[in-house]
């Protein structure tokens, strides 16, 4: 049993801050059907993705692990797994792994129920059943109860100079309140290996593996390029003052006592958000100088920006103006959002879901 | 019966649908594109995808090629390109290509528009205008030589190689005899059958190109340090009686018919009209593979299945041909053509092939497929991954093999 | 006889036939030669038409589709438990058999 399994088996029903029924496709071939099911059931969300078949080795494992983590997320009240039937990531196996963690699960595949019409009908019924079985009150959690995900997707001057230090201070508050922080974005670590080694207190092998040159172009080239142009301290502020205690593989959860963990994910927002959500983040704080508007289906995403042009252009999509907010203010917004107040992306109904790939489709 | 009713476009190509496409340049605006399309009339379809605003150069180039190819597919009557405004992919070039293809095109930037809510409102208006502007298109009789048919298989089983694939191959032979173009792809499913395909290549140059593409796809196993057997054949393939990739491939190549292979083109690249049988280098992953051929200009996709694949596409009608009698019985509502009578002994290949050829022409003329009726429009763009770019860096491009 | 099960042999050089209906132990095949099913074989799956030695090529469509990973006797079910691909392997195994399969 992996660490992740052990942890969640004990702590299942860890309180969430949203109460969603997840309609989870095991493969791209069932993704339209899952979206349609989610559309028809209040409180249901889908995580349509491009994966689940024609992947091999660690790429395939990563997809399956990430999908299990979505089903097992604290914001998920119950999960309907929908497959096509002939794919590699089989829906019944996936459902079994999620159910093992104590999550109420229903499973069906388009081929076994006899087509998309029947699948839609049965899927809606299953989702409604899960919905009816489960309704919890959101008690308005404190910072110490939360796992917060942190993603920053550009290194523009206002981002590094203003927004990231603000988030870093907030990260320290979460940790001193007893909460946990999971961060994504390996470019700034790779750009400054010595600083990273110094800051890291966990398993040396994991950090060296992360730092090793894989001989590949960066997944987010602009961030990778710009990370090298700053001093290590400048790009390190985002994660607060504390030490990084663990490097977590994409799709995995950190150990329960890791206060600050780094998810092995590049700084592409949609993929990185899934990485931190898989690592247990109830809520994601996204620093964006570009004004990327998308949320995540499972966790609310607070958009933080200090870039004037962006705040002027798409201010309506940004939750926190970092120029005019301090760490206490950001903490307040996080608490309010955790208590149920919808973030901008939730209000606008724009969520995207993506999983970072480890290799090509076959 | 060698004509169909199609829409003649400004650039001379012929569409079989009159789609208004809402196309995001990056995943950051995919959800907004979907929202805009949802509010529009029936023939407004989004092409949401998961490719990022920033990526390695070669990845961006392939993404641009596919966006441009899809946006200029003859089935697209008009297009709205949607961007956040910070994408590294060259959206202007895509817009120029659509305009040059004689189709109305608009670009909408979320940053310029003032956020998602404002962009959705503006996008809905643009889409309504595009719908009005393209509403005047009328179908006219067109010779089948203007038709490019993409052929795909997915959810294969043993019946695919016995019934649906050879029957579709028969239909392809008819199409090509009448002057049309057929294209099949899924390079991993050439493995084990490439020597058969190589013999059918029209020239030595094409033959070398084909073998170079196959070699590169097979090297994915080495790249990932894992067997191709982990993905091919899939669990459903195996349950359906397919034991090895070689067996799957030998059955799969039948779907292109028996005519000479004129060329092999890269993922998403233009498929020439009136050229007979042309292959495309794509992954075996159905949805990405279909997108590649739609980007190449295929107006119709014929998709064989044994286990029962139900996927469609936002731009091209996808005709599902089923070779498994039990699947036909159980999932008939998601299928368009029955090839299972070959297995049960009711029909011969020739009869079913002719029937499928008829279905292709009827579909081209406007008959809606099961996936269209149900609004199933799966879409995905194959993304060149950093590890494959690193792995193959400095190696010759298969497209350059054979000196062509 | 009524216990004949429909099967198809796609090429004269094939060493397996494909079942066009499922069969049980003792059923005979409605194909040339005298083959009796040694085990239950589902629709669409393959039956050995003759004995295969370990590492011998299994042929369908007139081509090698893999190699026998253990001796297979006529009438036995041929599938992933006793037949393996020679291609796309991380370990490069069976490459000789692949070459024998006619890779150009």
User: Rg of chain A, please?
Assistant: 20 Å
Strand order of the largest sheet of chain A: 7-8-6-5-9-10-11
Largest sheet of chain B: 7 strands, parallel
The 3D shape of chain B can be described as: globular
Distance between the termini of chain A: 30 Å
Shape category of chain A: globular
Order of helices and strands of chain A: HEHEHEHEHHEHEHHHHHEEHEEHEHH
Radius of gyration of chain B: 20 Å
The counted number of beta strands of chain B is: 14
Low-pLDDT parts of chain B are none
InterPro entries (chain B): GD_AH_C (IPR048332), GD_AH_second (IPR007392), UxaA_altronate/galactarate_dh (IPR052172)
GO molecular function, one term (chain B): hydrolase activity
Domain D-galactarate/Altronate dehydratase C-terminal (chain B): 144-383
Domain D-galactarate/Altronate dehydratase second (chain B): 6-133
What order do the helices and strands come in, and which of them pair?
The complex is a heterotrimer of chains A (362), B (404) and C (104).
Chain A: H1 3-11, E1 20-25, H2 31-40, E2 44-46, H3 57-71, E3 76-83, H4 91-99, E4 105-109, H5 110-113, H6 116-133, E5 147-152, H7 157-176, E6 180-183, H8 187-191, H9 193-199, H10 204-211, H11 221-227, H12 232-236, E7 246-248, E8 260-263, H13 269-278, E9 283-287, E10 301-305, H14 308-314, E11 320-321, H15 327-338, H16 344-348
Parallel strand pairs in A: 1-2, 1-3, 3-4, 5-6, 5-9, 6-8, 7-8, 9-10, 10-11
Helix pairs in contact in A: 2-6, 3-4, 3-13, 7-15
Chain B: E1 3-8, E2 14-15, E3 19-24, H1 30-39, E4 44-46, H2 57-71, E5 76-83, H3 91-100, E6 105-109, H4 110-113, H5 116-134, E7 139-143, E8 148-153, H6 158-177, E9 181-184, H7 194-200, H8 204-218, H9 220-224, H10 235-239, H11 245-252, E10 261-265, E11 276-280, H12 286-296, E12 300-305, E13 318-322, H13 325-331, E14 337-338, H14 341-344, H15 349-364, H16 370-373, H17 386-392
Chain C: E1 4-5, E2 7-8, E3 16-19, E4 28-29, E5 46-48, E6 57-60, E7 63-68, E8 77-78, E9 83-84, H1 95-100
Parallel strand pairs in C: 1-4
Antiparallel strand pairs in C: 2-3, 3-5, 5-8, 6-7, 7-9
Pfam family, one (chain B): GD_AH_second
GO molecular function (chain B): hydrolase activity; lyase activity
Keywords (chain B): Hydrolase, Lyase
């Amino acid at each position: 049993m992996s660490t992740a399994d052990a942890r969640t088996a004990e702590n299942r029903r860890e309180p969430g801050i949203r109460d969603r029924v997840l309609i989870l496709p095991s493969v791209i071939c069932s993704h339209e059907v899952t979206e349609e099911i989610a559309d028809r059931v209040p409180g249901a969300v889908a995580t349509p993705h491009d994966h689940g078949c024609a992947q091999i080795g660690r790429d395939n494992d990563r997809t399956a692990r990430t999908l299990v983590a979505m089903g097992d997320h604290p914001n998920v009240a119950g999960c309907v797994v929908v497959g096509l039937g002939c794919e590699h990531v089989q829906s019944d196996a996936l459902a079994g792994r999620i159910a093992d963690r104590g999550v109420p699960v229903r499973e069906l595949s388009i081929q076994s129920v006899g087509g998309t019409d029947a699948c839609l009908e049965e899927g809606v019924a299953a989702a409604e059943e899960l919905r009816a079985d489960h309704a919890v009150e959101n008690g308005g959690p404190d910072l110490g109860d939360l796992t917060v995900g942190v993603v920053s997707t550009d290194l523009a001057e206002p981002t590094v100079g203003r927004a990231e230090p603000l988030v870093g201070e907030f990260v320290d508050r979460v940790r001193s309140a007893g909460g946990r922080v999971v961060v994504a974005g390996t470019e700034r670590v790779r750009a400054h290996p010595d600083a990273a080694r110094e800051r890291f207190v966990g398993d040396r092998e994991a950090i060296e593996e992360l730092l090793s040159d894989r001989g590949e172009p960066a997944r987010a080239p602009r961030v990778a390029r710009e990370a090298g142009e700053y001093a290590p301290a400048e790009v390190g502020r985002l994660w607060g003052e504390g030490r990084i205690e663990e490097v977590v593989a994409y799709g995995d959860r950190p150990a329960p006592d890791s206060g600050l963990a780094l998810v092995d994910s590049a700084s592409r927002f949609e993929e990185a958000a899934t990485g931190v959500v898989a690592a247990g983040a109830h809520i994601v704080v996204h620093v964006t100088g570009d004004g990327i508007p998308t949320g995540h289906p499972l966790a609310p995403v607070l958009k933080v920006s200090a870039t004037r042009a962006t705040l002027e252009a798409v201010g309506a999509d940004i939750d926190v103006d970092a120029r005019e907010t301090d760490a206490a203010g950001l903490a307040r917004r996080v608490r309010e959002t955790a208590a149920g107040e919808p973030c901008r992306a939730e209000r606008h109904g724009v969520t995207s879901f993506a999983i970072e790939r480890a290799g090509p489709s076959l | 019966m060698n004509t169909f009713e199609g829409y003649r476009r400004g650039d001379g190509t012929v569409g079989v649908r009159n789609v208004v496409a809402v196309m995001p340049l990056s995943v950051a605006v995919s959800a907004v594109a979907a929202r805009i399309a949802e509010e529009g009339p029936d023939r407004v379809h989004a092409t949401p995808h998961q490719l990022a605003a920033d990526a390695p150069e070669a990845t961006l180039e392939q993404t641009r090629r596919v966006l441009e190819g899809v946006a200029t597919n003859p089935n697209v009557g008009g297009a709205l390109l949607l961007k956040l405004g910070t994408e590294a992919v060259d959206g202007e070039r895509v817009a120029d290509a659509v305009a040059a293809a004689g189709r109305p095109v608009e670009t909408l930037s979320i940053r310029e528009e003032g956020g998602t809510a404002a962009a959705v409102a503006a996008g809905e208006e643009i889409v309504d205008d595009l719908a009005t502007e393209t509403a005047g298109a009328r179908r006219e009789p067109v010779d089948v030589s203007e038709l490019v048919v993409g052929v795909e298989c997915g959810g294969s089983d043993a019946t695919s190689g016995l019934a649906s694939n050879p029957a579709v191959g028969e239909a392809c032979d008819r199409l090509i005899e009448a002057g049309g173009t057929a294209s099949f792809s899924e390079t991993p499913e050439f493995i084990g059958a490439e020597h058969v395909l190589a013999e059918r290549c029209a020239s030595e140059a094409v033959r070398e190109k084909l073998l170079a593409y196959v070699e590169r796809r097979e090297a994915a196993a080495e790249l990932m340090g894992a067997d191709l057997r982990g993905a091919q054949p899939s669990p459903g393939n195996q349950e359906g009686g397919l034991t090895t990739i070689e067996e799957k491939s030998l059955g799969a190549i039948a779907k292109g018919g028996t005519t000479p292979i004129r060329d092999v083109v890269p993922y998403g690249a233009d498929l020439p009209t009136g050229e007979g049988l042309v292959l495309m280098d794509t992954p075996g992953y159905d949805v990405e593979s279909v997108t590649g051929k739609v980007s190449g200009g295929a107006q119709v996709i014929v998709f064989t299945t044994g286990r029962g694949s139900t996927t469609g596409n936002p731009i091209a009608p996808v005709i599902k041909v089923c070779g498994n009698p039990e699947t036909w019985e159980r999932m008939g509502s998601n299928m368009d053509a029955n090839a299972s009578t070959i297995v049960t002994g009711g029909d011969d290949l020739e009869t079913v092939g002719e029937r499928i050829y008829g279905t292709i022409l009827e579909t081209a003329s406007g008959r809606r497929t099961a996936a269209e009726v149900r609004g199933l429009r799966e879409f995905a763009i194959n993304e060149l991954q950093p590890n494959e770019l690193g792995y193959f860096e400095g190696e010759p491009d298969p497209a350059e093999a054979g000196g062509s | 006889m009524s216990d004949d099960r429909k099967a198809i042999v796609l090429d004269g050089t094939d060493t397996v036939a494909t079942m066009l209906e499922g069969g049980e132990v003792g059923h005979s095949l409605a194909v040339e030669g005298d083959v009796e099913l040694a085990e239950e074989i589902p629709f669409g799956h393959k039956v050995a038409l003759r004995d295969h030695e370990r590492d011998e090529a299994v042929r369908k469509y007139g081509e090698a589709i893999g190699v026998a990973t253990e001796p297979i006797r006529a009438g036995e079910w041929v599938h992933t438990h006793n037949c393996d691909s020679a291609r796309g392997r991380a370990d490069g195994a069976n490459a000789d058999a692949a070459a024998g399969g006619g890779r150009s």
